[in-house]
Amino acid sequence: MTGVNSVNTVLVVGGGTAGNALTILLRRAGVGVDLVEVKPDWNVRGSGITLQGNALRVLHELGVWDQVQKLGFGFDTLGLTAPDGTVLHVQQDIRTGGPDLPATVGMQRPDLQRILIDAVRASGADVRLGCTVESLHQNAGGVDVRFSDGTVGRYDLVVAADGLNSATRALIGIPDRPEPTGMGLWRAAVPRPEGLERTDLAYGGPCFIAGYCPTSENTVYAYLAEPKRDRAAIDPATYADEMRRLAEGYGGFWPEIAASITDPAQVNYTWFDRHLVEGSWHRGRVVLVGDAAHACPPTLAQGAAMSLEDASVLAELLTSGGDADDVLAAYHERRAPRVRTVVDASVQLGQWLMNGVRDADVPGLIGRTMTMLTERP
C-alpha cells in the first residue's frame, strides 16, 4: 500500500509516543516520513506509564507488543484500599484491547520510548534530533518548512506531535492551551516490593489519591496526588523528602515504597491539566495528534492510549485513499467525540475528589467509559 496521491511526504514534529507511532505506520505503508525531535536525547526519560488494553492494541498493530510484554508487567485486576493499606475491594478490569491482551501493562516510560525509537529507526524514516520547526508557509500544494538548524523542506503534510505545549500548534494559530485542574502529582520509580502485582488506589488520607503500578519484574511506579502548589516555591532538592512525607500517611506497601524514595532527581512533580482543542484539529495541511490536540488528568490512565489511537486512525485514513482535506476532516470526526468522553470523565473524577463528593458514581463513570473504549476507534 502507498500513501494517497495528495499525501506522499510527511513531516512529523515530535518524537514522543504519538509521533513515533504515526511514523512507524506511515513508513510501513510506503509514505516518506521525516521526523524531527527537539530533544537531542530523543526524550528517553520519565518514571512509569500505565497502558490500558486499547493502548496495547495499537502497540500490537505497531509490531512491538512482544517487546512491551517482555519488559512490562501485565495484570487484570485493580485494588481499592483504605489509607492504612487495608484492601477494600478487588475488581476485574475491562480488557479494552480485546480478550487476547491484558487489561493493563505497567512499564518504565524510558523502556517504551526505546522500543518505539528502535521501530522508527528500523522503518527507514529520516530522523533529526535536536531540531524542530522554526516557521511554516502553506499553499494549495503543500507546506514549506524552515527548521531550527537552518535547513528547509517541503511536505504534503505536517503533523504536530510536539506535546502539550506544542509550538507547532501556536505557529498555525490555534489558540487553545492546557488548563490546570487544581491537582498536583508526585511520582517516582522505585524497586517493586515483593507481592505487589497490580495497581492499588487509596482515596483519602493526606492526598486525594495514593497509587502505584508495577512496571517490570523489579520496579514500580508510585504516585501521590494533592492540591497543586506553586512549583517555583518547591526546591527540587527537597522532592524526595516531600514525597516521603506525604507517603507517611499510607500503609500496606507504602512504607517500603517510601523508604526507596531517596534521590530527588528521580522524583517528578507536575500538575494535572485539561486540554482539548475545540473545533478542527488541522489548519490547511498541518494537523495535530496526541497531546498537541488533547490531554487529560491520569485518573483513567488514558493519556498514552488516546495518543496511540490518534496515530492509528490518522495513518489508516491517510493510507486508504482520498483527498487530504477530506481525510483530515474525517480524522477529527472520528477522534473528537471519543477523546472528549475520556477527557471529561478524567477531569470529573478528579473534580469529585477535590470537592469531597462522597456519593459520586465513580464506578459507574469508569465502567461506562472503559466499556466505550472496548470499541475500536
Verbal overview:
This protein has a domain at 9-57 and 110-178 and 275-373: FAD/NAD(P)-binding domain, CATH 3.50.50.60. The chain is globular and about 60 Å long. The chain contains ten helices and 20 strands. The two termini are 21 Å apart. By secondary structure, it is of the alpha+beta class. The longest helix has 32 residues, at 324-355. The protein has helices at residues 17-28, 53-62, 65-71, 109-123, 167-171, 239-247, 254-259, 303-318, 324-355, 362-373; strands at 9-13, 32-37, 48-52, 73-75, 77-81, 87-92, 104-108, 126-129, 133-139, 142-147, 152-155, 157-160, 179-191, 199-204, 207-214, 219-227, 267-276, 282-283, 286-288, 294-295.
Q: TL;DR?
A:
Helices cover 33% and strands 30% of the residues.
Just give the CATH class of the domain at 9-57 and 110-178 and 275-373: Alpha Beta
Rg, nearest Å: 21 Å
State the major sheet.
8 strands, mixed
**Fraction of helical residues:** 25-40%
User: Element order, helices and strands?
Assistant: EHEEHHEEEEHEEEEEHEEEEHHEEEEHHH
List the strand order in the largest sheet.
Answer: 6-5-14-15-16-13-17-20
Low-confidence stretches: none
Number of strands: 20
Outline type: globular
Q: Tally the helices: what do you get?
A: 10
